[in-house]
Design brief:
alpha+beta; 3-stranded antiparallel β-sheet; 3 helices; 7 strands; 24% helix; Endonuclease/exonuclease/phosphatase domain-containing protein; Endo/exonu/phosph_ase_sf
Amino acid sequence: MTTLSWNCQGIGPPWKVRFLKDVISQERPNFVFLCETICKKEKMEFLRVKLGFEGMVVVEPQGRSGGLAFLWREKEQVNLLGLSQHHIDVGVSVEGLGEWRITGIFDRYWSSRYGFNRPPIYMGEGKG
């Protein structure tokens, strides 16, 4: 299973779409999480088709900030568990690998409150 996460800071410019398409063709991820898309659902739907993904969950931006998208391939099974302006939470089933939970997060809370300037890695126990 391969995942890709990118804070694209606006996916509108054609060069960013080309860059993302190139990365996806090289890495062939099962799942892609995009944050700070600053794009409406209609534009993201066009992008989903262009990138060759079967499914997608979108959280639209608020004004000129935010926006999230989680995309997946045809063979993957995805169940939406929850979403907000700051996250998309899904359960996924991947053939040969079983069931997993993937949560894509975009949150400036920690960086603004505590001065963190590096991306976080979240760890924990997945039991029950």
